[in-house]
Write a structure and sequence with these properties.
Layout (H helix, E strand, L loop, with lengths): L6 H43 L4 H42 L1
Length: 96
């Protein structure tokens, strides 16, 4: 009986291959876990130092743009109302 015909030898090679792939997969999971831990530590450090995270900074910039746009629109409305009041005051003074 040759070595290649022995079922336990084929099973051992298959098991060896599975263990190797499992080790590679485990290595990938470990690498990802370490990256996630480092990112979490960075976020935690930023939160405790008062420095905003990149995500929070982007959100604040969006909010600032929106508030600036709303302030400009409100300023234009107020200026329009002031012009109307001036016009009405002139009309009232002219009628007297």
């Amino acid at each position: 009986m040759s070595d290649s015909a022995r079922p336990e030898k084929a099973a051992f090679k298959e098991l060896e291959s599975l263990v190797r792939h499992l080790g590679e997969e485990l290595s990938g999971f470990r690498r990802r876990a370490l990256q996630a831990e480092a990112r979490l530590k960075e976020i935690d450090t930023a939160a405790t130092s008062g420095k905003p995270t990149p995500e929070r900074l982007a959100a604040l910039e969006r909010e600032n743009k929106d508030l600036t746009r709303r302030l400009k629109a409100a300023t234009e409305r107020v200026n329009g109302m002031l012009e109307r009041v001036r016009f009405l005051r002139e009309q009232s003074e002219a009628a007297q």
